[in-house]
């Protein structure tokens, strides 16, 4: 096995983030399970021998305190997975500026704040792996959450632009774009009905699961993926083909 790394996964109390935390732990890394839901984060961290931290990624002060605490306690941050996001279902007629800003704060401000706080730590070590969790909705143009799809397209643009700036510091930054995946969040929302149109478009006739997404993230977070940066890997059972 390769050297043990410290990995931060945001929004890792459940769903895709929890599966990524499990996968990175299975690869031998020390995983910080960060989430606004501390109870859920603690359950995942206990299961995988990681560390749970309460964190709202949209709050600059919390992000600063979190980053300092991780570096003080674990000494380094080698891997950052920007997974935390709001996944709303809001048709255009009902989308107002308050709802727009709410989603931008978590999905975009959170990605910016976490990346901004972490890249100096990685640069000092001359090594880093950043993976943004985007979505295949940016490819498919899925309706009923234009604000969300805008944030996922933005996360891909961010990866493309930043890759060239952080390469000199040994840092790669890539995106993984999942398709519709059966998570707690999806099960509790109208997105659960989306499987009816997604399954016939996929190459495989079953629902995507969090464990289907995590290996792609773990690969891009590995030392082996060091020649890959600025890219987006769609992981959606063939639903979209870009
Ligand atoms: P989910 O709603 O099941 O879980 C999201 C987690 O993020 C929760 O534990 C929640 O507490 C946490 N969170 C929310 N706001 C936060 C904040 N401000 N700070 C820290 N943590 C916060 O979501 P999911 O379905 O597992 O989605 C995870 C990621 O995958 C998201 O980026 C989502 O956009 C993306 N994605 C999901 C699907 C899907 O179909 N499930 C498809 C494509 C992309
Ligand atoms: C195809 O990212 O990729 C619904 C909800 N349908 O969040 C997503 C598809 C959803 C998706 C997503």
TrEMBL record:
Cross-referenced InterPro entries: NAD(P)-bd_dom_sf, Sc_DH/Rdtase_CS, SDR, SDR_fam
Record-linked CDD domains: SDR_c
Protein's UniProt keywords contain DNA-binding: no
Highest taxon above the source species: Bacteria
One GO MF term attached to the UniProt entry: oxidoreductase activity
GO annotation terms (biological process): monocarboxylic acid metabolic process
Keywords: Oxidoreductase
Pfam families: adh_short_C2 (PF13561)
Coiled coil feature spans: none
Family, as annotated: Belongs to the short-chain dehydrogenases/reductases (SDR) family.
Protein name: SDR family oxidoreductase
Record organism: Lacisediminihabitans profunda
């Amino acid at each position: 096995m390769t050297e043990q790394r410290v990995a931060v996964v945001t929004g890792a109390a459940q769903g895709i983030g929890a599966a990524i935390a499990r996968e990175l732990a299975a690869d031998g890394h020390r995983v910080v399970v960060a989430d606004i839901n501390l109870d859920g984060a603690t359950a995942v961290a206990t299961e995988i021998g990681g560390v749970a931290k309460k964190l709202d990624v949209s709050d600059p002060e919390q992000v600063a305190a979190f980053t300092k605490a991780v570096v003080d306690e674990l000494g380094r941050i080698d891997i950052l997975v920007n997974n935390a996001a709001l996944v709303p279902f809001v048709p255009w007629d009902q989308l107002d500026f308050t709802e727009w800003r709410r989603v931008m704060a978590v999905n975009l401000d959170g990605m910016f704040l976490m990346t901004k706080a972490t890249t100096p730590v990685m640069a000092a070590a001359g090594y880093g792996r950043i993976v943004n969790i985007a979505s295949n909705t940016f490819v498919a143009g899925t309706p009923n959450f234009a604000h969300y799809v805008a944030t996922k397209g933005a996360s891909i643009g961010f990866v493309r632009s930043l890759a060239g700036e952080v390469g000199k510091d040994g840092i790669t930054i890539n995106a993984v774009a999942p398709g519709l995946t059966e998570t707690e969040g999806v099960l509790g929302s109208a997105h659960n009905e989306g499987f009816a149109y997604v399954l016939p478009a996929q190459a495989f006739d079953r629902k995507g699961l969090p464990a289907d997404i995590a290996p792609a993230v773990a690969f891009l977070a590995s030392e082996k993926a060091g020649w890959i940066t600025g890219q987006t890997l769609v992981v959606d059972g063939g639903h979209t083909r870009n």
